[in-house]
Amino acid sequence: MEDLIQGGYVLTADPKRVDFTRVHRWLAEESYWAAGRSYDLVARSIDGSLPYSIFAGTEQVGFARVVTDGATFAWICDVFIDGTHRGRGLGKWLIDSILADLSERGVQRFLLATRDAQEVYRRSGFAEIEGAHRFMEIDRRPTAKAILGRA
């Protein structure tokens, strides 16, 4: 994907531009789904994924990563927009750009999970999983209860 520009922001899929320290802080300290995640774990997760970043000048202000086989399936995760840049449509732009980029590669099935932003993702075409009862998991994450909204 070539860099995209919108309203003074740049969206890139260049993994060399990811500010690992900033993304780690967002995920480990400001998200509910990755609270307490170590720097090493964040770095390895980014290295094993397709990272997408939004910049305002040289400052990274948004991030998402995609776990994919590059052909049939993609899981969009760790979506984060810095609080000072929220409310400007950056999250939708990020998601829509990821969908467009991977759709051009032929990917047809996308998955993501959210505790509280369903309406945000519906605007990009996401809906609840039909046949969710067919899916199974083993969830050993220390943040599983927080992710599911359980005390």
From TrEMBL:
Domain of life, source organism: Bacteria
Family annotation (PROSITE patterns): GNAT
Q: Which Gene3D superfamilies match?
A: 3.40.630.30
One short Pfam family name for this protein?
Acetyltransf_1
This protein is called GNAT family N-acetyltransferase
**Which species is listed as the source?**
Actinoplanes flavus
The UniProt record lists the N-acetyltransferase domain at 10-151
